[in-house]
Amino acid sequence: MVLRAVAHRRVVSRQRGGIGRARVTLCFVAPLFFAPTSAVRGEAANTNAITYSEEQALKGHDLYNEHCASCHGAALEGQGSLPLSGATFKARWADDHHSVDDLFYIIRTLMPYGQPATLSKHEYVDIIAYILMVNGYPAGAEPLASDPRILRRMTIKGQQP
Questions:
Q1: Structural class in CATH, domain 54-152
Q2: How do residues 76-91 score in pLDDT, each as one tens digit?
Q3: What percentage of residues in the chain have a pLDDT greater than 70?
Q4: Helices in the chain by DSSP H: which ranges?
């Protein structure tokens, strides 16, 4: 439909002697026509694939021990706060409706308790990689991104991948 409109405009433009204007229009319309389809294909390919690296999770382990373990327990069992592993984690997060970005947002805006948003985005993402590792999600070659747009496409599944 867009190409038909562009072709029509080109014919009308030629009749008026404005071939240059038709070329300019085509230069602006063509990228708009093709960009959404490639973006959708890229999104579909990445949907649901949770990726983090083992190295990242190990960094997250150290950060977790320093900033989180006093409330959530050394083994994420939830000493004085909610557990971040096991049945409680699965019931709260691994329901096929929450994304990694949902978890990232909550942790980044509320934790550490009394001092929210005091770590860098990369440190929060490293901690999330550690939480995912403890909950049985396998490590891959690529580290977990800190870009919320990418994290939104990663759904936390109830069944281990």
A1: mainly alpha
A2: 999 889 999 999 999 9
A3: 68
A4: 2-16, 19-46, 54-67, 69-72, 86-92, 100-110, 121-134, 148-152
